[in-house]
Design a protein that fits this description.
Blueprint (H helix, E strand, L loop, with lengths): L4 E7 L32 E5 L14 E3 L19 E5 L3 E5 L5 E5 L5 E5 L30 E8 L5 E4 L6 H8 L17 E7 L2 E8 L14 H5 L7 E7 L8 H14 L8 E7 L7 H9 L18 H9 L5 E4 L8 H13 L14 H4 L8 E5 L4 E5 L1 H8 L6 H13 L2 H7 L7 E4 L2 E4 L3
Parallel strand pairs: 1-3, 2-4, 9-11, 9-12, 12-13, 13-14, 16-17
Antiparallel strand pairs: 1-8, 2-7, 5-6, 5-8, 10-11, 15-16, 17-18
Length: about 450
Amino acid sequence: MFIDKARIIVSSGKGGDGHVSFRREKYVPAGGPDGGDGGKGGDVVFVVDDGLNTLTDFRHVRKYAAQHGEDGKKKRMAGKSGQDIEIKVPAGTVIREAASGKVIVDMSGDTRRFVLLKGGRGGNGNMHYATSTMQAPKYAQPGQPSRSLELLLELKMIADVGLVGFPNVGKSTLLSMSSNAKPRIANYHFTTLQPILGVVELEDAPGFVMADIPGLIEGAADGAGLGHEFLAHLERTRILIHVVDAAGTEGRDPIEDMMAINRELARYRIDLSSRKQIVAANKCDLLPGFAAAAEAEDSEESDPFGSDPAGTEARDPVAEIRAYCEPLGIEVFPISAATGQGVRELLYHVSGLLAQMPAETVTFAPEFDPETELAPDNTPFTVSYDAKTKAYLVEGPRIERMLGYTNLETEKGFVFFQKFLVDNGIIDELKRLGCKEGDTVRLYGHAFEFYD
């Protein structure tokens, strides 16, 4: 089964906690703090692997986590940094934030490696907190927490040319005749169950990459069948070759097929109908006069394609297709993918068109920055009064982090805590709200009696 979408959860590594320890040696009774710093947590890194062409591997493993940093050690020894986790994806993978659907990064073009989540910074050991008035700090800084994100991976193939059309019109045969691709070919619908890339090499002309997109059906733009999954691969193409069954071997009208497919392209979330289109009128070897016309062309005779030697007028499907397409600016090439007739002319024409177009790969601009979106709230604190409990509540990420590395059980730790409240204006805010001596103040599970 072809997998071109996957939903995974990634987590960066937590930073190691700073260590609390003191130098104790026989002849150094008061050596001071020597707790080392915690190690940095590992990053989450996405890397393009040219050997991959599907997202199948993500069906079996959905959670990916980098290694946590080690805690600091005594004797000023820092903890070891956690290992990064590298997640390999095929070129052309678009990584989105799952909840919003916003693009984080498009692993295409020059983007071969991308750090999506950075690991947490390690905490400082207690050796950093020694001062002239606090020479034996009994607290250290905790490491920054890890961060997690749910991602949606979408593979959008990188091809210059996309083959579109209804099932069983000969797209796979055309790709196999034109390139090094070896698609599975059989005479039944949906032989191709996944997009296939082929490299077209030409003498004295630039080559290009062509993709066989599995047969579309009406309603594909609404997701009928695997419509969305297949149409997504056309978003990067610069030219669409619309393959039709000119001979109508299955009783289908090639013009009606073209109109139906173009309606689906126009209704897709990116208007693909505005792309440069060429029509390959395939299976012309099954039309009367096609082989004779090719032979006459080779021998420089002027027997027009589709002429009737008996003098009776025969229906010319290729002429009908041209009559419909040419007023729309769409060129038509009669071909037989099975015998190779007309294929060379088609490929050289496509190569010439591509040479006139910009060579940049279509990429999707970032819309979601994890570093910004997942950054902790920088609001220093909030103070409110809870009438139900008759207590003042002080909250905020800065306060929570401070409590994480402050030992309130020690006198010096409590003095440091009080100074923090004064320096950050929390005491003034409590007074402004009417807090007076004897009132209760709560901070993340801690309850204190206010005094001025």
